[in-house]
Amino acid sequence: TEVTEKLEEVVMIWIKQIRQVLVESEQMRREADDIGPSAELEHWKTRMSSFNSLLDEIKSSRVKKIISILQAARSKTLKQWKELDGNITNAANAAKDNVRYLYTLDKFFGPLAKASPVTMMEHIPSLMNTVCMIYTTSPYYNTSECMTSLLLKITNQMINTCKTYLCEG
């Protein structure tokens, strides 16, 4: 029982740390007003990497051994652990999905950033079709709040590109 208590203390520390990571990941992001869509992709890539690292740690043999000892001891801390394990898995999957969806827009980021206003207009119809596809298929980007944020970033990039074009011309 002494060993079980020590292991439960360790798992409770992990639970507290994982909860903190989840809480921080759900907080509002502070972003510059003129940020472009590639920053959205970078955000989700970073988040995916963080959650995947956490999942790798959770699935490590050391953690699995401790969890199996606590299972044998019928520890009550495992209920919280399993819930958090599921939450981390869901967060990692959501980040991976968002990266996948945003990569479909990635081919437009270059033309949006470097094109002239005239050539930029040629990309708008297919860009909007891709945004529409993301809206209809993504569990995350199917809300007006998330879609507004994404469209704002796309618009910001277009405005910045036009400003640069005008200043150079």
Automatic annotation (TrEMBL):
InterPro entries, per the entry: DHC, Dynein_heavy_tail
Gene Ontology MF: a single term: dynein light intermediate chain binding
Coiled-coil region(s): none
Single Gene Ontology BP annotation: microtubule-based movement
Pfam families: DHC_N1 (PF08385)
Any single Gene Ontology cellular-component annotation: axonemal dynein complex
Superkingdom of the source species: Eukaryota
Domain (Dynein heavy chain tail): residue spans on this chain: 5-167
Protein's name in the database: Dynein heavy chain 8, axonemal
Organism of origin: Balearica regulorum gibbericeps
